[in-house]
Amino acid sequence: CETCSKEEAKYRCPRCMKYSCSLLCVKKHKLALSCNGVRDKTAFISVNEFTDLNLLSDYRFLEDVGRTADAAARHCIVHSPATKRLLYCLRNKARGCNIELKTLPVGFTKRRENSTTFNSMENKFYWHLKLIFPHCNAEYTLKGVPDDKTLADILKPYIDPVESDPVVCQRLKIYTASPQSDVRILMKIENRNRNSVRYNELDASRSLLDNLKGKVIIEYPTLFVILKTLKNDMVVLGQDGSEPAGNSDSESSSLSSAEEGEIRDSS
């Protein structure tokens, strides 16, 4: 016994692997080591020590995780009338602003992430917003962005050489070193074929709400920030919504991994 060092050990703690001789010693070792006695299913095991028993344990652990996730998705709060009313209110308010807001079923990543709210007192949306900088393979998530804030002000903490955070500025140095006139803000057009991905160009001087009017949004807006001087394969529609010259719907656009993730979440 590793607690009293007197009697022959009869038990071994699944958590810390300490040997004990009796219930009294088990309680003492738990108190002394702040041990809960529950086996750590995620503890590291080297390849040399990995056995079929460990494999079975991992398999059962993943099954438990799957059951827990499924139970959470079926929880009454998720399907409660209050939740449904909230989503209906968001869609209805967006429709009043000439925005077609679509929500995904429970379990989708974008549905879980979305923190968009509507303040009835201020009559204003506070959007969940994602910014993607393809040239630096960087992605940032913003919460509670007011709809009357201009896109230029939204981007300042990221690409402005003076106001941006030093760490962010270093990561996005391609953007911060470029003139503001070279920056373009694009948003993917939803409800198109996957082999015909197109983007709308947004006006940085206008508010987020003005830029979202007349567009389809799945859960929350995702903005792609690119530079005119750098090559990219994003096909931008004309201001009148027409196809650009030299591009057809059958033409396939090359996408970065970040964009592919957006498509998978949206489909």
3D architecture notes:
By secondary structure, the chain is α+β, with helices and mostly antiparallel strands. The protein folds into two domains: 11-63, no CATH class; 76-227, Roll (Ubiquitin-like (UB roll)). Helix content is 33%, strand content 18%. The chain contains nine helices and ten strands. The strands form three sheets. Strands 4, 5, 6, 7, 8 and 10 form a six-stranded mixed β-sheet that branches. Strand 1 (11-12) and strand 2 form a beta hairpin. The radius of gyration is 27 Å and the shape is elongated. The termini are far apart.
Protein topology:
Layout: E1 11-12, E2 19-20, H1 23-33, H2 52-73, H3 81-96, E3 100-102, H4 109-113, E4 117-119, E5 124-133, E6 138-146, H5 151-159, H6 166-171, H7 173-176, E7 183-188, E8 199-202, H8 208-212, E9 216-218, E10 222-227, H9 257-266
Parallel strand pairs: 3-9, 5-10
Antiparallel strand pairs: 1-2, 4-5, 5-6, 7-8, 7-10
